[in-house]
UniProtKB/TrEMBL annotation, chains A, B:
It is found in: Cytoplasm. Plays a role in the regulation of phosphate uptake. Belongs to the PhoU family. It holds the Pfam family PhoU. This is Phosphate-specific transport system accessory protein PhoU. Homodimer. Keywords: Cytoplasm, Phosphate transport, Transport. The gene is phoU. It comes from the Bacteria.
Length: 215, 215
């Protein structure tokens, strides 16, 4: 019986890992769609979002089945509950990638990001991808250094977000209203991606140490 | 034993109801802060967000304790798992209310919403408050008509969101870049509030009927 239980816990972990891979790829493609005007990448992200949503349902069903049949307690129980929450955060990152891809597609063949905003948005994309890479490591290894790196990457993300809004609002913005609105939303999407990555790292740190890391 | 179990399930439901009340009030106050330039309302929302975050932790601990000690199965298990997710959605609505209040406060004593955008933003605020009222009813009574009303209110919300962006992007916007960015973010906050309300209603409908209502 115990072997089957371990198999089920491993299956949940494997599903979360597969979901993380899918979400990472989706976010990277969304950034390619945005920054390179790649329509195919945008379409792939948008149509692939349903697969990520289904993966979340699958993780949730795994977790519920585990709770019903194995009735885990203590550490294992918290691990299963954390898995439910992590699947939710991953799904939201997938949604945000789809939002980025849709915004990019809507403006094609024009770039959604004007030249003046490109350095910061490209940097946000890079930081977000690094954070998703850290999410994969943290989930796979429960490595606390990777979790700490993720939290400090989020400080960088927040700094970029604030810098982008300073540029938008300092009175010198020359990109026009449409581009300002696009850039504000894109900044928000990347910043939210970072928040969800942090939420995942916090869950894992809590599982490992019993202490929730502060913001 | 069964009595204590029922008490625990009732306590979780009562905590979710209390959280819903707090979140409704917070969102209503955020809209007052925004539309009436009420600084006190903004401060109350912003400082109250930590209480809502703590309520979510409390709901989560209730749920985990129930899972650990009572090991519910079938319907009860799905109810507890749904409770975890609903607490998460409510917390996010609280966060969005705090975002609205912060944006309002940042612009005071000027209004964050220019006169031309006020009718649509005020309507989004009204629809959001109605949706939160429906959330309270749906959670309290599991009434499927209230859940259906909530889903159709979200269609209204999405229509308002699209209308606001049409106004922002049709080339006639005369409110300037800063106001455009503010209005874009505010629209997004209200629209996300609606999405979280829908997510809660869907969870409840699924508990009652076993079928997830489609978007």
């Amino acid at each position: 019986m115990r072997d089957f239980y371990d198999d089920q816990l491993d299956a949940l972990a494997a599903d979360l890992a597969a979901m993380t891979t899918a979400v990472r790829l989706s976010l990277a493609r969304a950034s390619t769609a945005l920054l390179d005007g790649d329509l195919g990448a945008a379409e792939t992200v948008i149509s692939g979002d349903a697969v990520i949503d289904a993966a979340r349902e699958s993780c949730e069903n795994d977790a519920i089945s585990l709770l019903a049949t194995q009735q885990p307690v203590a550490t294992d129980l918290r691990r299963v509950v954390a898995g439910l929450r992590i699947a939710g955060d991953l799904e939201r990152i997938g949604d945000l990638a789809a939002h980025i891809a849709k915004l990019a597609r809507m403006r094609m063949p024009e770039p959604a990001v004007p030249a003046s905003a490109r350095p910061i948005i490209a940097e946000m994309a890079r930081v977000a991808e690094g954070m998703l890479e850290s999410v994969a490591i943290v989930l796979g290894t429960h490595d606390l250094d990777a979790a700490a790196a993720l939290l400090s990457a989020d400080d960088e993300m927040d700094g970029l977000y604030r810098a982008m809004f300073r540029d938008l609002l300092d009175g010198d913005w020359d990109g026009g209203v449409e581009a300002a609105v696009d850039v504000a939303l894109l900044s928000r999407y990347y910043e939210r991606t970072g928040d969800h990555a942090v939420s995942i790292a916090r869950r894992v740190v809590y599982q490992v140490t019993g202490v929730v890391p502060q913001a």
